[in-house]
Design brief:
heterotrimer; A alpha/beta (598); B mainly alpha (291); C alpha/beta (241); A: 598 residues; 6-stranded mixed β-sheet; 4-stranded antiparallel β-sheet; 10 strands; 56% helix; 10% strand; C: 4-stranded antiparallel β-sheet; 37% helix; globular
Chain lengths: 598, 291, 241
């Protein structure tokens, strides 16, 4: 297999983990500083200053949606609720209960986080984006009604006035311009935080969940926890935005936190570009200022926003920032820190444990009347390559799905290292050292090869301790499959055979003790198959236990130590490749037989 | 006792509105897997179409109603072609956002065009009514329920009794196979959108003498239609009808006995409870996810 | 002139090319078997014929007309009917209604003609006649397979493509399906039979082709192929010792 000539790989340098300011990063910092100076010094008229402040507070709230929608792929029409909780908690806390500003602020954030937690937990139980959208609209509706009607707490429609601004030691924020600068600084800080979250493990985990929740779960990402975390974070940012908002006009009323505002937050997230911090800032400015600049929009702006949502989805789903990034990307290449040259991954032979790595006992999986797996017994010995074969529909993938926890078996048991893993959630099983690949490749297509493998690396128990850093661990896995030279390529640009290998690298990066490969040779040409066989042989020589579902008998013959044959959900033969091929039952299963009896 | 009866009548009447809208909702969902967040606003547009034909063209109510239905059928075609067709292969999120956008567009577009204040529409029977025992039944309510019965019967006949109806069922059950048989799937989907929008428009026309015609009519109806399908069982036609009626009763009784201001909230609460504890609704089937 | 001809057809999904330059013919009145292990490209071949999958190169000719650019609807209206893998019976419609919809490629059919055609199919498939008003989901796998074939026949096909008819069926049901296909053949319908189960297919067919990883590995009469040990290699490996 030909692999592209290696690009420069320099030896590991000290301080690798620190961010180096490269071309694009420097430009960003420069632009931000300039903008800050401009807004701090330029004498805007009063209205514009306040509008900019409002835009800043909207942008902060929308940062929450960047995380929820952009990163984790969920949806919420209730962002105005968290915005409102922050705002009202602060307003009521300071003006009615006479708390200290910061105490009230923290209380508001905590309250919002709690509601975010609840909403997140509810979202786990509803299956599907539509239901989630509906539930969030419901929460929004109830919140609005409460704001209007619980007059003794919220002052109802008349709102709350004279809300003070944040008391900073030594600085006064009474001046509108000063307050604007404060809000912008906070936006920069929070925006950087959200951007940083996107680059860190939690962001990577969220993106994996967004792309394919099932694959993420099986890789080892605790998808439920990740989704709930996304909701909590979105609530926190929403509340902070609301707190900033109170200081803009020093007045809030229920009208500011209605469903329209939730839709506006959604719009500005989508308008800017869902995954992008800059995008939402741009979106916030547009959404706040367009009705000002365009007179005719004064009364019809919501209608226009509705139309904008439709057109954006049809014509510009990545938003304005997505478009800009394409243009900018031509001129300024993204930062690519040099990658460490590391030796390929090695697997330690574990301390003496039982000979049987994986045991399947009388396993049955029935779907209604269909017996996909019917009383299967199978033992996979440690350090062996065990092939699972059988004609189409014989239950091989279902068996694999039960082993990895996607289905709970109707009957029977699965034991890993003599411990039962039956009925455990997939990510728990993965954390016990089980990795798998899928028949249909499930990679993060719009991300680099390296990012994809790092997802695998970050769920491994021994990852960092063994190799000093996620990136190094991922590189070691890539080196093992032979793809370290293309670490920065986008996954979607790779030829099919390479994508397969990336998936295998991802599975290896978590240092599993059991690797399950589901038809890894499907779609590969001869040279690629040869490379695959060599890879599996190498893994076997390092005492990694492999279970291989494969149709290509050549591969099974050349690399497997033991074979189990399934047909109609039952195990009909077990032994070495040669011995099972001689069995009549196996030949009949594959080739078919016509009943001689009339 | 008569108060309960009164609430019952009102609940069934408003429930019929929800049921009509929910029917259209379910049909679109079954044919295209799209959840149309703008369905209630389509009902609202129907109400405004009626308003225009009554006040501008001075047509008699029954004719105005029919014309409005025709208009809404055309709107449905445009909706399907303009919104669904470009997004049909793109996954759930773009369609959800786009239909939410459509909802916002319709609602605020109407406000821009007609103003925000509600309009009064006189129904076919004026303020006529009749009595069942001690219960006073508004003629318009009776018409609502009657039309629901007629539509249900028509729908049953259409889908079970005509070839076209069976082809549409086929499309919603297995689009790929329908294509392989030579059924014009695209045309079926456009017809589905047209019919569902006409249903929504019908609901809007019928409800406008009872509730005031205003732009905000739509969102309340959408939520309740959605809630009806959840309660009845997402994707099930009978469920949509039963769910709509149940919801109408829940809203009316809840509003009367518990709290009027939170009337909108009851539907929501019931929906959330169903989603948590019985997501398949009353009639739907639990669909197991296969890897 | 052949009824169906594939000339050097290559096709695939996304990045993967699954078929590499496959050529085959089907003459009128024949039953031709297309064999191969899972993943060899049999279903992909059928998809290129029925118009569901566009070719990367090559041509498909049906009855003297080039059809690889046509939509599935246009293809089936020309009499090229497919009975797909996994049957795809409409679960919520009755047996009768499933059959009715099978006529969708024939243009306007009068009510009486339609009723007559449905009855004819029910006569041919007694198993279905007993359940004419049952809903699709209530039928067993074998009954669904019968219905799928009947639905294909009611379309008055010039060529019937049957994909994996024996899949997931118990041996005794497979025998029944075999009988049906023999009867179809006796009545003069041309059939292209895609099958993983080589023995079943070869017992029915006049000729056969064997696909191996997207290429044509063998061809010959059914008799020749049944005796050829290389066929088993295509399934069980061993040809590249």
């Amino acid at each position: 297999m030909t692999i592209a000539a290696p690009t420069t790989i320099r030896p590991l340098q000290r301080g690798f983990r620190g961010r180096r300011v490269t071309g694009r990063g420097a430009l960003v910092v420069l632009v931000v500083v300039v903008l800050l100076l401009v807004t701090a010094l330029y004498p805007f008229n009063d209205l514009y200053t306040l509008l900019l402040t409002q835009a800043a507070s909207f942008a902060v709230a929308a940062l929450g949606l960047v995380i929820l929608i952009g990163y984790s792929g969920q949806i919420s029409l209730a962002q105005a609720v968290f915005f409102g909780i922050g705002a009202y908690a602060l307003a009521i806390g300071v003006t009615t209960v006479h708390l200290e500003f910061w105490v009230a602020a923290v209380a508001g954030i905590a309250l919002a986080a709690l509601l975010g937690l609840l909403l997140g937990l509810v979202s786990l139980k509803v299956s599907g984006l539509h239901y989630l959208a509906l539930v969030t609209i419901g929460v929004q509706t109830i919140f609005e009604l409460w704001l209007l009607n619980q007059v003794n707490v919220t002052q109802g429609p008349q709102g709350i006035v004279n809300i003070p601004r944040a008391p900073l030691p030594g600085l006064s924020l009474d001046g509108d311009q000063a307050y604007l600068v404060f809000c912008l600084c906070l936006l920069c800080v929070l925006g950087s935080l959200v951007w940083w979250i996107g680059r860190m493990r939690i962001g990577r985990a969220m993106r994996a969940v967004r792309e394919n929740p099932l694959a993420a779960e099986v890789i080892g990402i605790p998808t439920y926890r990740v989704k709930v975390e996304a909701f909590v974070l979105s609530a926190v940012f929403g509340a902070v935005g609301g707190i900033l908002y109170t200081g803009a006009y020093a007045f809030i009323s229920p009208d500011d936190f209605d469903l329209n505002h939730s839709i506006i937050f959604l719009l500005l997230t989508v308008l800017g570009g869902s995954g992008s911090v800059f995008g939402v800032t741009l979106g916030a400015v547009l959404v706040v200022f367009l009705p000002e600049w365009l007179e005719f929009l004064q009364n019809t702006y919501m209608a226009v926003y509705g139309l904008a949502l439709i057109l954006l989805m049809i014509a510009m789903p990545t938003g304005i920032w997505g478009g800009l990034r394409l243009i900018v990307g031509h001129w300024i290449k993204p930062a690519r820190p040099p990658l460490p040259a590391v030796p390929p991954l090695t697997f330690r032979a574990p301390a003496s444990k039982s000979e049987v790595m994986l045991a399947v006992r009388s396993l049955s999986m029935y779907f209604g009347g269909v017996k996909a797996v019917d009383g299967v017994d199978m033992e996979v010995r440690r350090g062996q390559v065990h092939a699972l074969v059988g004609p189409n529909g014989s239950g091989k993938t279902t068996l694999l799905n039960v082993i990895t926890g996607i289905y709970e078996p109707t009957a029977g048991d699965v034991l890993l290292d003599d411990r039962s893993i039956t009925g455990l959630r997939p990510h728990v099983i993965a954390s016990r050292g089980v990795s798998r690949t899928f028949q249909l490749i499930r990679l993060l297509r719009s991300e680099s090869v390296l990012e994809n493998v790092m997802v695998g690396a970050q769920v491994g128990r021994w990852a960092e301790q063994a190799h000093g850093g996620l990136t190094a661990q991922a590189m070691a896995a890539l080196e093992l499959v032979g793809l370290s030279s293309i670490a920065y390529e986008d996954a979607k640009n790779l030829p099919y055979g390479h994508q397969r290998l990336v998936e295998i690298a991802r599975a290896l990066a978590s240092m599993p003790s059991l690797l399950l490969l589901d038809e890894p040779a499907a779609g590969l040409n001869d040279a690629e198959k040869q490379h695959l066989v060599e890879l599996i042989a190498r893994l076997r020589s390092e005492s990694l236990t492999v279970v291989l579902i494969e149709h290509d008998m050549e591969i099974v013959r050349s690399v497997s130590d033991a074979v189990t044959v399934l047909n109609f959900g039952k195990a009909i033969a077990e032994g070495t490749c040669e011995s099972i091929l001689r069995e009549r039952a196996v030949q009949e299963a594959y080739m078919g037989v016509v009943d001689v009896v009339a | 006792m008569s108060e309960v009866g009164q609430l019952l009548v009102a609940g069934i009447a408003i429930g019929s509105v929800y049921a009509l809208v929910a029917l259209g909702f379910v049909l679109i969902y079954r044919a295209t897997n799209v959840v149309n967040f703008a369905q209630g606003d389509l009902a609202m547009l129907g109400a405004y179409a009626l308003l225009v034909t009554l006040t501008v063209f001075h047509l008699p109510f029954w004719l105005a109603g029919l014309v409005s239905l025709g208009v809404m059928a055309v709107v449905g075609i445009l909706f399907g072609l303009g919104l669904y067709y470009p997004l049909r292969n793109r996954g759930f999120m773009p369609i959800i956002v786009a239909t939410i956008g459509a909802s916002v567009l319709f609602e605020n577009g109407i406000v821009a065009g007609f103003g925000a204040s509600p309009h009064v529409v006189t129904g076919m029977f004026g303020t006529g009514s009749f009595h069942i025992g001690s219960v006073f039944v508004n003629d318009q309510y009776a018409l609502l329920v009657g039309i629901l019965v007629v539509v249900t019967a028509f729908q049953f006949w259409f889908f079970e009794g005509t070839l076209l109806g069976k082809k549409m069922q086929a499309v919603s059950q297995d689009k790929q196979m329908a294509l392989l048989l030579g059924i014009p799937v695209g045309l079926m989907i456009v017809i589905t959108f047209s019919y569902s929008t006409a249903l929504a428009g019908l609901a809007g026309v019928l409800v406008s003498p009872v509730l005031f015609v205003s732009a905000g009519l739509g969102s309340g109806i959408t939520m309740n239609a959605f809630a009806a399908t959840v309660i009845g069982g997402f994707g099930d036609v009978t469920g949509a009808i039963v769910g709509g009626l149940v919801l109408g009763l829940v809203d009316t009784f809840g509003g009367a006995y518990i709290s009027f201001t939170y009337e909108q909230g009851f539907g929501m609460a019931v929906v959330i409870l169903f989603l948590l504890f019985r997501p398949q609704g009353l009639f739907g089937e639990r669909v197991a996810e296969k890897a | 002139m052949s009824l169906l001809e594939l000339r050097n057809v290559s096709a695939g999904y996304g990045q993967v090319e699954v078929l590499h330059g496959v050529s085959l013919t089907v003459e009128p009145g024949e039953v031709v078997a297309l064999l191969g292990a899972n993943g060899a490209g049999k279903t992909t071949t059928l998809r290129t014929i029925s118009g569901t999958l566009k070719l990367r190169s090559g041509e498909v000719w049906f009855d003297g007309v080039r059809i690889d650019e046509l939509s599935p609807r246009q293809v089936v209206c020309r009499g090229l009917v497919q009975v797909p893998e996994a049957r795809h019976i409409f679960p919520g419609l009755t047996v009768r209604d499933n059959l009715l919809l099978g006529m969708s490629n024939r243009g306007r059919v009068s009510r009486s003609q339609a009723a007559a055609d449905v009855d004819e199919q029910l006569r041919l498939f007694p198993v279905l006649r007993d359940r004419a008003d049952a809903l699709g989901w209530a039928l067993s796998g074998g009954q669904q397979q019968m219905l799928a074939i009947a639905r294909g026949l009611i379309a008055k096909p010039r060529l019937l493509l049957i994909d994996e008819a024996s899949l997931g069926l118990a041996p005794v049901t497979v025998k029944q399906v075999l009988e049906i296909v023999r009867e179809i053949r006796r009545r003069g319908t041309t059939v292209l039979l895609v099958e993983q189960n080589a023995a079943v297919a070869l017992s029915l067919a006049d000729r056969g082709y064997v696909l191996e990883t997207g290429e044509l590995a063998l061809e010959g009469t059914a008799g020749q192929l049944s005796a050829d040990v290389r066929v088993s290699h295509a399934y069980l490996g061993g040809s590249k010792a």
